[in-house]
Structure formats: structure tokens, C-alpha cells
Amino acid sequence: MQCDFSFRHYAECIRRISASPNRIEMIHDIDFEPNNVREMAEIECRNGLKTTYFVRLHAKSYNAFSLPVLETLSDLVESYGHRIGLHFEPSFYEEKRISEAILRESAILNFVLRVPITALSIHEPARFGGIKQEDVPEGMTLYCWDSAYYKGKKYISDSGSRWREGCMCQHLHHEEMIILTHPDSWFHRTSAENY
Ligand SMILES: [Zn+2]
Ligand SMILES: [Zn+2]
Prior knowledge:
Blueprint: H1 7-19, E1 23-30, H2 37-46, E2 52-55, H3 67-78, E3 83-88, H4 98-113, E4 119-122, H5 125-128, E5 141-143, E6 154-157, E7 176-181
Parallel strand pairs: 1-2, 1-7, 2-3, 3-4, 4-5, 6-7
The structure holds zinc ion (ZN) (2 copies).
One zinc ion is lined by residues 29, 31, 87, 123-124.
């Protein structure tokens, strides 16, 4: 098995994850484009995996509320059985407004998409820092490496299209694990398909 960022290898990894007895949770940050989201979602669904896709509301490159993106997001939930979360951008706000911003942004996402928003992740926490646990609304899970939810779980991510500790397929022996991927990083033949 050759490790790369091809959809071929993605499908191999997903097959192995779905066959594993370990508790492996897949999450995805839609940072720049929702191009590959449908294809990833379909591979996961075909293998019986339910995952979470985190959506930005302040991206320059896509509008979560435009018709094509809304249709993709709705399909993630309705056709593939996945979950939508808010990919929150703390650098957009002053610190004292963060708690209110999360509440309002998740409410508008919930209103437009008509799905519950119960998951929150942070965009670029390495550059701008995370958020305080007390700013997380009740009933919402914070997906960030320093959050209580990650305690005791192995966490790996393909941030910057690089697995810092080796590809996800080399880590599936961990009993509890969270794997973050970015749909923009994956392609069929060349990364030029995406950007
Ligand atoms: Zn691999
Ligand atoms: Zn992000």
C-alpha cells in the first residue's frame, strides 16, 4: 500500500478504519473549497462510517450559504448520514465577543441548514490559539487538541498536506483516535485539481 494523498489511498484507509475494532473518529475541516467533500463523504458512507465536516462562515473562497454549497452540505447529512459542525474563526472577533459569536454563528448555520450543530472546531489554532472551554455553548463538543474531548485519544492531522507522524494508515492500532483531514489536500492524479 502506497501512502499518498490520492482518493485511491483515502478509500484504502477508510476501508481499514471501518474494519477496525478501535474507536476511530474522522473529522474534516473545509478550509478553502468544498470541491472534494462529496467524494470523501461518499467513500465514508459506502464503508459505513459517519464523520463530521466543519464549515467556515468567513472563507474568502466559498460561501457556506450559496446554493451549490448548501446543497452539498445538505447532502452530507441527508444522503450520506454525516454531521456538520462549525469551523470557527476566533481571529475574526475580539476575545470578549467569542462566546456570543459561536452561539450566533451556530444558530444561523442551524437555521439555514435545518440540522443541529453540536460540534465546533477551530480554524488555524496553531496561529491564533484556541478558545476557552467556558466559551463553548452547552451541548456542543469542542474539537481541538487541547480540549477535554481529546484527552486520552491519539490525534493526527494532515494539516498543510503533511502527516507529521506518518500517514493515518500507520496509526490505526490506537484504541481511541481522532483523525483530522482537509478535503482540499486530496486528489485523483494531481493537486492541481484543487487549487
Ligand atoms: Zn497511508
Ligand atoms: Zn481550518
